[in-house]
Amino acid sequence: MMNRQHIPVMLKEAISGLNIKPHGIYIDCTMGGGGHAAEILRRLNKDGHLYCFEHDFDILSYGRNALAQIASNYTIIPENFIHIKSKIDEIGIKEIDGILYDLGVSSFQFDIGERGFSYHIAAALDMRMNRAQSLSAYDIVNKYSYEELRNIFYQYGEEKFAPPIARRIVTEREKQPITMTTDLAEIVLKSVPPYIRRLDSHPAKKVFQALRIAVNDELNNLEVSLNDAISMLRKGGRIVVISFHSLEDRIVKQIYRKYAEPTIPRGLPIKEKDIIRNYRLVNKRVIVPSEMEISVNKRARSAKMRILEKI
Fold first, then answer.
1. Taking CA atoms, which of 14, 145, 160, 268 is between 20 and 30 Å from 89?
2. Architecture in CATH of 112-216
3. 3 φ, ψ (degrees, to nearest 5)
4. Model confidence, pTM
């Protein structure tokens, strides 16, 4: 059961950023509960169409129900957005007017305790976005080497106490397998200095983030999908990405700049003014939620939005 209302992050900014054309073709790469998708669909005429990607079957029905109350000119594709190009090609669509990515874990996924995304709720170590896949957080925590765990916590969680956390995990799992989210959270708590334990943010936050990213291969999926999505844009089409941590935002920023601000190789007799640019950054500076939105929806506080347009 869902015990919280789903509140889409930066909804007005996302819809404005897409610059929706009523007859256009749009893609929501992360439908979730359908918050953003519903607002896109409301702005489309009958000859416009919305395609939604969602590979988490536990929440897919919530998005479908939200859209069904508005119109019928939508299609749900039960796949990870890494397949955006191949699946849209299969349908026969060649150009897209707008694409939205709302990254991270939805409130629905956090609120289903058994999914194992939250360190506050006792549940099996899982963290799979798509529960049809085999790799889970349990496998990583109990089977990966010390070096692999340390690197995951460093790379995906930017956790400076990665070595002692990884070392204690290896020690504890030799006694018995680590099966529960709360057990892992307690291990992390014991692995960090006392002053870290006294902070408002739980010490396990970065470790759980890192595991979730590793389990779902989130950063690689984003990089592949975003490059494909950019190649699918129609002239005047836009891509809006809402990210929730620095690793995601860095990928988006670098990819956008590659297309909008191509560099001139050294030695070539080309001037900056002679470069033909096919894309532009709609917002030179990253867009963040308002203080009012953060006060209503705490999960919005780390969100960042970037917009790219084909010109």
1. 14
2. Orthogonal Bundle (1.10)
3. -110, 10
4. 0.90
